[in-house]
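To: structure desk
From: M.T.
Subject: fold request, one chain
Message: Could you run this one when you get a chance? Sequence is below, nothing fancy, just the single chain.
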Amino acid sequence: MLKRMLLGAAIAVAAAMPALAQGLPRNTLVVLRAIDSDRYDPHRTTSRGGGEVIYMLTDTLVSLDWDLKTVRPGLAREWKVSDDGRTYTFTLREDVTFCDGRKMTADDVVYSINRWIGRTTPKITGPVPWRAGPVKEVRATGPYTVEYELTEPFSELLYQLSLYFGSVIDRNAAERLGDNFGVQGFNGTGPYCWVSWTPRQELVLQKHPTYAWGPPLYQNPSPQIDRVIWRIIPESNTRIAALQTGQGDITQYIPYNWLDRLRRTPGIALSRQENYLWDFFIGFKVDKPVMHDPVIRRAINMAVDRKAIAEAVFFGAGDAADTILNPTALDFDPGARPLVAPTDPAAANRLLDEAGWRRGSDGVRAKDGTRASFVLYGLQTDETAQMMEAVQADLRRVGIEMRIQLWDATVGWGRLATQEFDAFTMSYPYVSAGDALNLYFRSGNRPTPNRMNWADQQTDRWLNDGRGALTPQARADAYAHVQRQLQEANVWLPMVREQLWLASTRRVQGARAHGIYGVALYKGLDLRLTQ
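Reply: Done. Structure tokens follow.
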């Protein structure tokens, strides 16, 4: 059966890609992926598909090492932070050029940061200007020196500046192309340069010929591959067949049920990033009937068998989550772990009984005229549907009814911005504990992304203390308080932590999964092709 499935998929791949039927072009890397991006403008997209390419097209002031915690140089070879934590002074490399050959200077950094936060003319309205921090002014104090002044300390700044949103771009290209920047063309300082984009099919990059300033986490600061083709193959079996038949070189989009098979496939190498941060969870609107009751939220956490769901849905490519943050994340608090409600359906039943939630004739509990029934919204994917159906069955066993409504992404994000639902499910990347906590639990972020409507003055104070901390220990202490508070309140049901694997063929050497903001290949450096 498996051989027939592979053969059919391979035939489909060959028909879809006749140009590659006789083998891949020399020194050209073909990256296979599931979805495209809306655009490739670092200041106007938050998609993983966008980030994958943007990291190759551009550079950021700083980079993150393989541990996804240690900040390393990027376009800035060094930096200093003022004693009050409000001013960062970056000393830039002097050997950096854009793809068109123009030298990069401090003015380019200033323009790019200002464009990110909406302070250029014409103004760009981007989705995440807050990630740049409370900016007072970014100024060039010399050809290769930038002062980044904040209105108040922002302890997350360097980590945020490592994300592709902080990419440095060419002002001339951005102003010439306008809304079509990152759609019809691009000019950055990255190891690869824009050639062409055919939406929903492929995007082509070529080597930046003078690039020699890759982040120090790589052994070789220069690209070794002449051309990179990012090819879209939405159907998972067809995508894997393309990899196995040599019509593609590398992918991080591995169907969960294929991972074990690929381990046993000759000629396929796998690389895993152990520090990857991409979590699936269910969030509860704490001000809604039913969800307002902390007993219900704790009982849900106790009733759901997350380990069984991770094994059944992710086939070993996901880990059951027992805390709201991944233990590998920067500033994770081990003290929050003992506060986790253990999986124990019998104890969940006892807890609900003692709290006065009585079963009705249909098996659903009720209390004071309110049924233990709630509506969950989410985006439609195969794994989401399977996980939510399993959660629904687990909750039914303890007398709680969950009604599932999943939406296509074209309308789903709009639905998730409403107050129509009681709970929601989502997955997301993050770069640190502070990144995740400030995003989802700050009261000022209601109704989205704080879809839980969690509004607690003490939470806000601790978050502010963490953001404004002047030492790593002070930051970690503040965020530890938040983690313990939220864990005790059971504001979320942590579900599964997705693993990141990178599969490559034997002609690819040096493949290693990075994982920053969900991106495996990052800059694509250290990669070599044997033929």
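Reply (cont.): The first strand starts at residue 28 and ends at 33. Let me know if you need anything else for the meeting.
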